[in-house]
Amino acid sequence: xxxxxxxxxxxxxxxxxxxENYLVYLGRLNYNxxxxxxxxxxxxxxxxxxxAGPVRFQETSALKLFKERVEPFxxxxxxxxxxxxDYEKRTLLSRAKALIVPNRWxxxxxxxxxxxxxxxxxxxxxxKGSLKEIIIEGKTGILCNDFNQLLDAIRNVDxxxxxxxxxxxxxxxxxxxxxxxxxxxxxxxIMNS
Length: 193
What we know:
Blueprint: E1 23-26, H1 35-45, E2 49-52, H2 60-70, E3 78-82, H3 86-95, E4 98-101, H4 111-118, E5 123-126, H5 131-134, E6 141-144, H6 147-156, H7 162-173, H8 175-191
Parallel strand pairs: 1-2, 1-4, 2-3, 4-5, 5-6
Helix pairs in contact: 1-6, 4-7, 7-8
């Protein structure tokens, strides 16, 4: 089995940055990815939210959702950063309390999840798609089946260790692991040819 990989030499906890009291949402701002749920979670938990990602204007439903369920709450504890580059993303993840992934769809494999783990940031997510494979429940993240569970997870996320997240990213999702697994697959194909 070969997973997508992340460059753990680049995506890593920035040592001089202390963990801060905010959640981060990374990715497109649309209904399937649950940006409106992320906003509600921030408002109801009282924990600030930093949102990084694009609103795709060709997705008219996404623009409508942004205007109605995100924009009115910006300022104060909810901040919209727009799209960020990898350096900004690494800093954002290194400082965050958790990455919040309130998906409504079965996403195949979101790279931002393993980037978060590599930066020592646990994931709070809906129990959908590849998240069940990426997150080690209660160790590198918390999988949730509804809004109330997401809210509880946010309140309990400090019990998760950044070191566990980093160790898991190194073990399962590093470039070195990816190359090793791919080599094994190629060798098996060659041996059976």
